[in-house]
Design brief:
Bound molecules: zinc ion
CATH architecture of the domain at 57-330: Alpha-Beta Barrel
Order of helices and strands: EEEEEEHEHEHEHEEEEHEHHHHEEEH
Radius of gyration: 21 Å
Largest sheet: 8 strands, mixed
CATH class of the domain at 57-330: Alpha Beta
Helix content: 10-25%
CATH topology of the domain at 57-330: TIM Barrel
CATH superfamily of the domain at 57-330: Metal-dependent hydrolases
Distance between the termini: 57 Å
Strand content: 25-35%
Length: about 425
């Protein structure tokens, strides 16, 4: 049946559009976007007065492979009911586990794409519950070019890029980091896909000297640095000057994209404020890094992470672009999703921007007073209405056990507020 979304304020960055318009969905596609559309016969009408209507939200960094790692969440419970119609799984599966991952995706309603992990084991051993197990780069033999290429070529509908994590404790005390990155750059060059890099407790510098590799210095146009605002050892902020490292801005100029990847430890209000103040560095894509350790807070869901960026001063139009058109383009799916262009898949999210007065935490339990909050109201995936609900008990989560869990992270914070 056709769906007519009436009287909403449409924000569609792909078409540089922000005005009150009606949106008609027919046969699973967006067919018309204009003012005052008369409903056709056999049509359900949704009144979006006072709401924002935008393309279905895309979360560029989640972990949605429950059988494949202890981090995995069910996207039909934690993403789709929060207005997120598409998620990109960031490396939960490697070549070894990919067929199992694909089988799981087919059972979900949420549209799922994958950044294939360069290590064949994916994130099998990642996560707090498995902290004593060896990391995915413990053996460099697990990063196998032929296996990655074969897997990516066999699954072009799902694999939209590759993922690597650079941290010394998962790479034989850092010993394998440089070689793993060298292989990852080579593999993604061959298949012409972007590489998403997690770079937190790494032994690699921001920019290598000569042949030496660095992050983001060695990344290329279209590659993605995730966890951009973390405050750990490999932070983009120089703790001695409290300013952004110029290499980071140079990379931005070269086309490297920056992703939030909030997670349980990777979003610091202080780092975000310093990166914006000293480098005007805003995210290209806003993502949750939703997993079992971040879903009940401090990330919660995509609209909460978007709320944090709004609080930091990012314009609403740019916030919406960072969860629609930009991620769609980065994964080369901009004709299909991420816009309300007639002919695109009928993924639509309706949100409200509501006034509030709440203290909202970062990953180190530092608080900011939030005065406005984005919340999902309704969504359609390929023209089919999605049920919106809150999977957690309270928001924000101020339970004692949660604060205790988060306080561990405080000891890791590299940059402290003044
Ligand atoms: Zn992640």
């Amino acid at each position: 049946m056709a769906v007519l979304i009436k009287n909403g304020f449409v924000i569609d960055p792909a078409n540089d559009m922000q005005m009150q318009l009606d949106v008609l969905l027919e046969n699973g596609l967006v067919t018309t976007v204009q003012s005052s559309i008369e409903p056709p016969l056999e049509c359900s009408v949704f009144d979006a007065s006072g709401c924002i209507v935008c393309p279905g939200l895309i979360d560029m960094h989640v972990h949605c492979f429950p059988g494949g790692s202890s981090l995995g969440i069910d996207p039909d419970k934690y993403c789709l009911p929060r207005g997120v119609t598409t998620v990109v799984d960031a490396g939960s599966a490697g070549a070894k586990s990919f067929s199992k991952f694909l089988a799981y995706c087919k059972t979900r309603k949420t549209r799922i794409f994958s950044l294939l992990h360069v290590s064949r084991v994916g994130l099998e051993t990642a996560g707090c519950a498995t902290a004593d197990l060896p990391g995915e780069l413990e053996s460099i033999d697990d990063v196998n070019e032929d296996e990655c290429l074969e897997c990516a070529k066999a699954n072009p509908d799902t694999i939209v890029g590759m993922k690597i994590r650079l941290s010394e404790n998962i790479a034989k005390q850092g010993h394998n980091e440089a070689e793993a990155l060298r292989r990852a750059l080579l593999i993604t060059e061959k298949i012409k896909l972007p590489l998403m890099v997690h770079y937190s407790f790494s032994t690699l510098p921001h920019k290598g000297v000569g042949e030496e590799l660095g992050v983001p210095g060695s990344l290329r146009n279209g590659d993605i640095l995730t966890h951009m605002y973390h405050g750990f050892q490999s932070t983009i902020i120089d703790p001695s000057t409290k300013s952004i490292d110029p290499v980071v801005l140079e990379s931005k100029e070269n086309g490297v994209k920056f992703d939030i990847g909030h997670g349980m430890g990777s979003f610091s209000w202080t780092v975000a404020e310093l990166a914006i103040k000293t480098g005007n560095l805003w995210p290209d894509t806003i993502s949750t890094d939703l997993h079992t350790e971040s879903m009940d807070g401090p990330a919660y869901d995509l609209t909460t992470v978007m709320t944090k960026l709004l609080h930091l001063g990012m314009p609403l139009f740019d916030v919406i672009k960072a969860v629609t058109f930009t991620p769609a383009k980065l994964i080369n799916r901009e004709k299909m999703i991420g816009s309300l262009t007639p002919g695109a898949i009928a993924d639509v999210t309706v949100m409200k921007l509501v006034d509030c007065d709440l203290m909202l935490e970062d990953c180190q339990m530092h608080m900011r007073n939030i005065k406005q909050r984005l919340i999902p109201v309704a969504a359609w995936r390929a023209g089919e209405r999605v049920k919106i609900f809150e999977p957690w008990g309270t928001w924000p989560n101020v339970s004692e056990s949660y604060q205790c869990h988060q306080s561990r992270e405080r000891t890791l914070l590299h940059i402290r507020p003044d």
